Amino acid sequence: xxxxxxxxxxxxxxxxxxxxxxxxxxxxxxxxxxxxxxxxxxxxxxxxxxxxxxxxxxxxxxxxxxxxxxxxxxxxxxxxxxxxxxxxxxxxxxxxxxxxxxxxxxxxxxxxxxxxxxxxxxxxxxxxxxxxxxxxxxx
Length: 139
Known about the structure:
By secondary structure, the protein is mostly helical. The chain has 2 domains: 2-68, no CATH class; 83-132, no CATH class. Helix content is 53%, strand content 0%. The protein is built from 7 helices and no strands. The protein has helices at residues 2-20, 23-27, 41-53, 55-68, 83-86, 98-109, 127-132. Helix 1 (2-20) packs parallel to helix 4 and helix 3 runs antiparallel to helix 4. The termini are far apart. The model has no long low-confidence stretch (mean pLDDT 77). The chain crosses the membrane at residues 7-28, 48-73. GO terms for molecular function: transferase activity.
């Protein structure tokens, strides 16, 4: 009778240890280190299931996910291209050639961006920004 109790005890210990490591930390280790953001409802639901079955380990799992930041969705990715590489896309009159800009961004970022999409929102720069890049505003 001693062997079945050891098996059951080992299973309980393994279950408790998996709950202590937290779902977000296990499933998305790349998310660790985030400070804030949108909370991932799947991770919250998995931690809530842990709370349902084992109150203390479930609460610890939820706390670990919040403390490590693994409970948050990842931030949006950003990319930067130096102004010197973007300069060929700007024509002499200060207007941007979208075809050249799309080719430059595709070669630098490795992604094809839909610059001719009608939903694209264009922001105009200030005179100071243009002067910083050696450009003159179109009047």
